[in-house]
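Morning run. Coffee first, then this:
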Amino acid sequence: MVSQSNKWMWAALVVVLVATGAIVVVALRPDRAPVSAPAALTGTQGAPADASGELTYERLTRPARTQVSDAEGRVLALFTDGARTVRVSGPERTFGEARFTHATVTTDGWIRLAPKPWKAGAERESWFRPWLSRMVKDRSPDALAIAMQYQDGAKARKDAKGIQYAGDASFGPYSADDPDGRAENSDFYDYLGVPWDFPDGRHERPDKAHFRSLDCSGFIRMVYGYRMKYPLLGTNTKGPGLPRRAFALAAVGPGTLLIPSTGRPARDYDLLQEGDLVFFSHGEEAGPTIQHSGIYIGVDDSGHHRFMSSRVKADGPTFGDFGGESLLDGPSYWSARFLTARRI
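And here it is:
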């Protein structure tokens, strides 16, 4: 994306006459599809939810979870046992990425992070009611909106110290040694350009070559860790936080394992919820080894299950189809390699 100044060289300018007589200038790059607008986000306001009145609680299975509804019967939120991510109902939003796909994803789910993992009966705890009341009204960026802030063309956002914490992210620098053409090992602190001390005692310094870059697990750690404050680990071992690599997130990550890996393509799509982590093998032949990770974003306008991840060919976070459709179902590259899923 924009981590290197020499990657945005124009190949050509094509002038296209459209039916209205307007002139559209389309910029072509040697390794890209035609330029389109950056990711679109639109929303519609539905009936306001109400968490202040009488609430009802229903226990559901596969996975074990609690559905919370208001006095009018409207579902307010879904809390999954063992997980902190909560699907809160809110205004519908439509996410698009016109540069790399015609597909859009519309959802009324807002993915928030509860202060602790859920368990049956937790609605009786003191934190629950005030937290839910705030969340049903909260329109600040959730996990899905935060993820979109790293797509191609996303605008830069800086904190009070002038550190850019969001904006167009690359996957990593060019590498002749990497079979995919770009180097991995781009974590959130590389994107930020700041050193980081992890609670498990590991200290990391950013690599200048990986500035403004996020590999697949680095992208997840940026969204849920740095931005949403889920604890982060500096290693790939089990602990109270998100480990570094995709295989470790899948095997020993926190939360609830939704779809155990059998070594064969997973097909239990009905178990998934927006914001879940999804894991894949990668390479010419599908296999049982986890080598890639992403975030499930929901069912698109064609009825397909779509995910978002940071990948080499799109050079950063995308739910588009350049270099392989971002689908868990259908005859796509990634659907044949989808192995397991976890809700954190």
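Residues 216-227 form the longest helix (12 residues). Good start to the day.
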